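Pipeline run #58 for the internal structure catalog. This entry was flagged by the ingest filter as a single-chain record with no existing model, so it goes straight to prediction. Upstream metadata was stripped on purpose; only the residue string is passed forward. Reviewer on rotation: M.T. Logging verbosity set to normal.
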Amino acid sequence: MNIPWLLHRLSKMPLSEIPWRLLEKSKKIIDRRKVFACPDSNASFDSKIFQLCANAEVGRLQELFPESLNVNFSVARASMENRYQAFGVAIAFQDEIQWHLDPITKKAWPNKFWGDINYRDKNFGGVKFVWEFNRLYCLFALGLSYRITREMQYAHKILEIVASWLKGNPYPMGVNWSSGIESGVRLANLVWALSFLHDYPFSKAQLESINSFVWLHAIRLHRYPSRHSSANNHLLAEGFGLFAAGLYFPNMPEANSWLKQGRQILDAEAGRQILPDGGSFEYSTTYLSFVFDFFLLYRHMCLLCGLSYSPVVDERLEKACLFIHSIMDKDDNLPNIGDQDSAVLVNFGLSNTRNFSSILNTCAVLFKAPELATDQPDLKTWLLTGQIPQPAPNRQLLNRPEYWLHEHSGLAVIKDEVQAKEVLFVGNATPLGLAPLYAHGHLDALSFTLSVNGMELLVDPGTYLYHGGGNWREYFRSTAAHNTIRLNQQELSRQTGDFMFGRPYRITENSLQEQGGRIIWSASHDAFLKNNPQAQVVRKVVWDRSSASFTIADQIEARGNCFVELFFHCHPECLVVAIDNGLAIARGVVRLDLLIDPVMEVQILRGSQFPMAGWYSPGFNEIKECVTMRFYGTLPGKSEILTCMKVAFG
């Protein structure tokens, strides 16, 4: 047992959580010895399930989305041969699928009661790799392939996988039952796959297998809901799984209870897990893609089945779309703020990041907002709405900067045009993360990203790994891994676990205003006021359209001399060369001249491990070398560091 981790975890629990944790412990003692078997029920599911993909007309799909269909066919054909993927790692089985095998370490997680498994045990590997292919994302591709080709083999494979999974994961044994979010996501993918099988001649044994799969998952979710400090996006998956099970399998004895519980969770969480300004309450941009789909698909299912849902769902979905639209550049890139695990709910053939474009397309239809539509129609939007949104015609050039301050999310956005090319700056003054664990937060206060003409130049380097990530996990969450300021080589907060921090910092200022045609972002925090020696940091960024430049003024006020570091991380495709008084960052036709305050020394790092710097992770388990620029120097207690970034082309 990891005693330091346990003590830190206990310190994050409010007193009211302790009785609940003890109750959970007692339930596990009972369930460890209990035999679970699906009760006798009518071996059928409600026909309303077949409405989910009612817009899957074969001819139109082949005409409109040939590339998306090819992606799904590829996934389906691979799964026919028991070949899968988990975060870019190929997984292949000859005959029987080994559902507990880590694809990297080749070690199998223990076959014992799920509550007795320490899924943080690094000896077996990172548990997310096993969980990923156990989410059964392939089921959607198999169902769609059956609908398009009418080849029975694809439908047969869905039922074969369900039976194999049940055999390999008899409840309550194994690591695949350890996390409720995994059960919820599996149920979602099963339901959507079955929606393509409306004319499939199910045998009684196959229907019983499906019923057993659903019942065991719903029992797990109903019996062990996430509460208190664990009530994050996991709770959404649990609620969605219960909602789907109760709605589409009404013959189950507990179906009404599941349906009620699922609806209550989703209706209540809509106003909590999407902030009033549309951002994610876990302060992660990419988690918003995942969270959004729980409410979008919940809404879709309610409308199809004549159920009411909270009006807050529509309100927050629309707010989220406006938020996404504001921070997305012309080529659909978003700043990768906070943790990124590449999660999707149902695998419609879209990555977590590509799903943002689909979200905007869908909302352009749902909320009659053509200005949100992208120029890339997608299969998911068609399946949900039956429409291809038309982008607003004749986009006008900006005659003045646009800017937004997302006060709840902590992001300041400046969008402008230089020589008819978009400039997008996103300033980050988000809180550390969701209290009390701050699990998916990064030490990124006062950082920023910059995209020009749809090309990311200065980036947030991402996440790379979770459980078992070791030094990599620590680095990608660190202060030095973000475009921000570090004083006296001290972190903004101490990392006390892979998903915990110590004392959080507080954002003390975050303002965005226009003065004399210039846009000024000003932000500060109190992280270094809690350190010894104490220091205050204020960052002010001024965008001047007339000179196409950003001026960054970092004001330091400390007791005595202070060792100051500024970090700038480039996209991997950027080339960095020395120029007079600074550095030039080039990517394609775009150039950014970075003029450095003469009081600072310069260090260029690329793919370095000592010190760790110069790394970029576009997605979970993906890593590339990039250039990190480190400006450093020992300065008097009261100092101002000026850095100028000038945009140019050619």
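catalog note: The mean pLDDT is 93.
catalog note: The first strand starts at residue 83 and ends at 86.
status: ready for reviewer M.T.
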